[in-house]
Amino acid sequence: MEEEKVELRELERSSEDKVKKEAKPPNRFERIIQPCIAELVGTMFFVFIGCVSVIENVEAAGRLQPALVHGLAVAVMVACMAEISGSHFNPPFTLAIFLCGGMQFAMVIPYLISQLVGGVLGAAMSKIMTSKENYINATGAAFTILQSEEQVPGAIFAEIAMTCLVTMVVLLGAVNGKSKSPMVPFLVGCTVIVNILAGGDVSGTCLNPARALGPALLAGYWDYHWVYWVGPISGGLIAAALVRLLLGDEKIRVIMK
C-alpha cells in the first residue's frame, strides 16, 4: 500500500514537471532569432531550387517542370518550418499575415529582410552550382519574359491576381480560425503549381519579390523588375483586404460581425 502511494506521488510530481515545462514561454532565441533564420534558410533553398530548375532546363523545360519544382519546394519547406517561423518565405505573405493579425509588427521588418537576403543567397548558390554557359543562357533565372511595354499591363494583372489567390490560400489555411487546415503546405504548393501552369507565359509567375530580387541582382538584369514588386505586393494586400472584410471569421473580420 505504501509503495502504491509513493508511485502515485512520483507520477503526480512527474505530471506537474511536465506541465511546467510545457507552460514555459519560449526564450529570446526561439521567439526572435530562430524564426528569422528559418525564413532566411527557407527562402534561400526555395530560390536556389527554383533557379536551378530554370537554368539547367531553359530550352526543354516548358512550364511543367518549373511549376512542379517551385510548388513542391514550397510544400516541403512550409511543412518543415511552419512551427518555427510560420513558413512565409515571401514578403507579400508576411504583410498579409500581419494585416490579418497572424504576427506581431515587431517581426515584420526582420522577416522581410531575412527573406530578401535568403533570395540573394539562393540565387548565388544557383550560380555556383550551374555552368557559366547555362547560367548566362538563362539570365540567372531572372524574369526575362517581358520584352515590351505592351506586355506590362497583362503581366501586372497576372501577378496581382495569382499572388492574391495563393495569399488567400495561405490566410484561409493558416491564419483564419474557421478554415485552418493541416493540409496548408499541400494546398499552397498546389496553388503555386497551378499558377505557374496558367500564367507562366504571361508574366513568368514570380509572385514573390524575394524570388525576383536574387536572380536580378546576380545576373544584373533589371528590365521591368519593378513589375515583380508592384504586382505581388498589390495581390497580397488585396487578399488581406478580402479576408479582413469578407472571408475571415468573426475574430479577423472587421465588418458585419
Keywords:
mainly alpha, globular
Q: Could you explain the architecture of this structure?
A:
The chain is mainly α. The chain has helices at residues 2-23, 28-55, 64-85, 91-99, 108-129, 132-137, 152-175, 184-199, 209-219, 227-247. Helix 2 packs antiparallel against helix 3, helix 2 (28-55) packs across helix 9 and helix 7 packs antiparallel against helix 8 (184-199). The protein is globular. The model has no long low-confidence stretch (mean pLDDT 91).
Shape: globular
Taking pLDDT < 50 over at least 5 consecutive residues as the criterion, the unreliable ranges are none
Strands, total number: 0
- Terminal residue distance: 59 Å
* Rg calculated over all Cα atoms: 21 Å
Strand content: under 5%
**Helix proportion of residues, in percent?**
over 70%
Give the SSE string.
HHHHHHHHHH
Question: What composes the largest sheet?
Answer: none
Mean pLDDT across the residues is: 91
**Helices and strands: which structural class?**
mainly alpha
Q: What's the helix count?
A: 10
Write a brief structural summary.
The protein is mainly α. Helix content is about 70%, strand content about 0%. Its main location: membrane.
